[in-house]
Known about the structure:
heterodimer; A: mainly alpha; MetI-like fold; 3 domains; two-stranded antiparallel sheet; 19 helices; B: alpha/beta; D-Maltodextrin-Binding Protein, domain 2; 9-stranded mixed sheet
Amino acid sequence: MALEVDWGIDPRAYRYPSSRDETLARRLRRAERKRQHAAWLLLIPAVVFLIVALVLPIGSILFFGISNVSVRHTMPRTVAALANWTGNQLPGPEAFKAVVADLRAANKTRALSDSAQEINHRYPGASSLLVKSGREVATWPPNAGQTELIAFDSVWSDLELWRAIKSASTRLTPFYILTALDLCADWNGRVHWVAADHRIYLDYLGRTFWICFVVTSFCIILGYPLAFLIASATPGASRLLLTLTLLPFWTSILVRLAAWVIVLQQNGIVNSALTTMGVIEQPLALIYNRFGVYVAMIQVLIPFVVLPTYSVMRGIPKNLMQAAASLGARPIPAFLQVYLPLSLPGVAAGALMTYIIGLGYYITPALIGGGNDQMESSLIARFALSDANWSMAAALAIVLLTSVGVVYFVFSRFMRFDALKLA
Amino acid sequence: MLTLNLAQARDFTVASWGGALQEAQRQVYFAPFSKLTNIHVQEDVYDGGWGKFKAMIDTKQYVWDVVNVESGEMQRGCEEGAFLKIDWSKIPGGKSAFIPAAAADCGIGAYTWAFVVAYDSDAMKGKEAPKSLADFFDMKKWPGKRGMRKGPRFNLELALLADGVPAASVYRILNTKEGVDRAFRKLDEIKSSIVWWGAPAQAPDLLASGSVVMTIAPNGRIAAANKAGKHFKMIFKPGLMGVDFWIALKDSPNIAAAKKFLEFVSDGKRQAELAKLIPYAPTNKSGETYLNSQEKETLPVGANIANALDTGSTEANQFWVDKGDELIERWNAWLR
């Protein structure tokens, strides 16, 4: 007798899909595609908004950092005359005539001032030379050129000046980005470091990254226990602690910095208290130095670590630690092997946010720090607001943005992206 | 068209430096001007530099009508054709009624200021008090921190003045590499003790809190602190002087009101009233007649500024336009 088992199912039903099943599968796929299309369509307004409000404006500003804006428009004859100039010796008389014509046309306009500045970045002294010459050429005969210019000011016979004009007349230029990295390119295209007593930008960049690293580390060290406390407290206490953590957000940062000045200054609260208690003889230097910058920045940036960490910790079941204990783990190994890895995504998100926000800080070091504590953004602010040198500001911004991108890339390789939880 | 109409709807706006200075200007200029002409004066704060002007000129969105600027910006705006050319025939007294440094093509001198060495005489009780700029650099006799304004401008000039260079030669010497090196060498003597201030209001605060023993400061802020009860002393000589200017933006929609305002603030008596509130000296020569001798002692007038270096001269501004970028780079490297 053959062993026949009645499973109650018809084996033929699972060999090929029937015609009714086929339509169902196809209908399912079509519905799925429609849902995906709808999802993409919903995304389009957000993408358009991002492009119009973020990418285009910031892109156009950053373009200043890699382009020459003024000379090409103000001195077209000169630009044309120098188009095929090799730069190995002084240009011919047509170039001088072209300069005179351009100066005459541009005299007393905003355009000449801007162009003069653009050339001055490469050749200090060019600004007043061009403006002075512009005023002078108005009195010259129409075909004035080389002899008159050099007679007016012998600087016009300096090859480096003409090289500077040529460098400022191209559409795109690497000059500003190179300067922002303490580099310069000589006429043959060789790139080398600028003179030692002019090297500042990489220092600023390095210092900015270091300060943010220290601040982020301490924010994690101080913020993790606070988040743990908030997550494991009773609901009432937890709400109170959360409010206290968020309270500083409601005060202006300048007010907070002014408060730190009062607390940390030489006759301030901390020093007075320590001196009265007899702990110290001379007041400590707590402000206008790196220590003050760290303290102020940590206080401002701690909530950015506490909040994501807390919200992740809230999702960790409270009985996990008890389960670990019941399996024989002592408290510290239990914490290290069970709780910490689970809370790490929140810490990672908080650390990333704190670091990137900290990179943009410059008011705190400006008010609380010393001369050696200023950060990259203060350079950008000075170039943009005070000097109106938007090319340099944009170049520095490009450098900072790229560095942030590199940090984020390294970070996301280090920690798997899907492990990051921001809320 | 719409934006043009919106721009017309803006109030007449004056921008100045904020703080004690702007409060005094409000009392002496803005409020009386409003009362006299029925034009409401909207105030704003200007932090210095050219960035804001460049943005306004490039976009043709003029948010200010009259601004209280430093001489560098006044000259730049004049060169670029953005500031109104002053019609001196309409100003009572004309150019000759003003000190030479204050009668410019595109600006009327608002007040004369000086950068002084300031110290707290209460803190110096029983000790010998500093008497000159050279004492600012004497770390042996007066150990302790020094306050200085951020940036190379004014500080390089002060260093050369303290090193004995006469005021007339400072910019000529600074235009050479040896001159710049000399200025930096002098500053090296106090470099490790310098506390840098950015906003002028910080300088008297540093003195008051004892954070510094001596500070370079604008004379007006120190005098305002003295009015509030402090006993700061000022050393004028040798020092820096400058004139800040009222300018009008040529293409602003409220240019008619701006012209009236410029005429209003050129009056010597009113300038003297400002000097009584905050000791920035009148630029209109007739203003001095309204001051008594005690006031003239703490003001940048007469003997106090006789040999001071004019930081707003064409020579000075041209120097900084040319060499500013380079020197700022060197300055930041030196700060390391």
